[in-house]
Write a structure and sequence with these properties.
Layout: E1 3-4, E2 14-20, H1 24-35, E3 42-48, H2 55-65, E4 69-73, H3 79-88, E5 95-98, H4 111-121, H5 131-135
Parallel strand pairs: 2-3, 2-5, 3-4
Antiparallel strand pairs: 1-4
Helix pairs in contact: 1-2
């Protein structure tokens, strides 16, 4: 069974999904950088993939401290693909950005692909663009 510190959100624009495995020493900057973006309606979801260190406890603590972050603790390590499928389920964003636990986002990083996508919608001849740019953040 999966424990969750999920919060009741509605109609989020972007979800930052962070799969974690034994990354306690580097997790906090990743979560904090993802929430310091100039976007409204931003949420973060962190899934601890049965870490052998205190990553899960840290993720829950940060979820309680940082607004708009939810933490999931998975009972067994199913690998990154399994963690990602569990991260996507509670995601409420129209867009999902994947961020590894050892990465951090520069200020404004999430806004640039969204701005480009919105601009492309208003240009004839361009297909639905840039979802892959959002999904490949690192």
């Amino acid at each position: 069974m999966m424990a969750s510190t999920a919060k009741p959100w509605n109609n989020r624009y972007m979800t930052v999904a962070i799969p974690v495995y034994s990354s306690a020493g580097i997790l906090e900057p990743s979560i904090r950088s993802s929430m310091h973006q100039p976007l409204r309606d931003l949420e973060g979801v962190v899934a601890d993939n049965a870490s052998t260190d205190f990553s899960g406890v840290l993720a829950e603590w940060l979820a309680a401290e940082v607004s708009d972050v939810a933490g999931l603790r998975l009972p067994r390590n199913g690998g990154k693909p399994s963690a990602m499928s569990k991260l996507v389920r509670p995601a409420l964003g129209k867009w999902i950005a994947v961020l590894d636990a050892d990465d951090a986002l520069h200020d404004g990083r999430l806004g640039r692909p969204l701005e480009a996508s919105c601009a492309a919608r208003h240009r004839p001849g361009l297909a639905r663009p840039l979802a892959s740019a959002i999904l490949q953040m690192a």
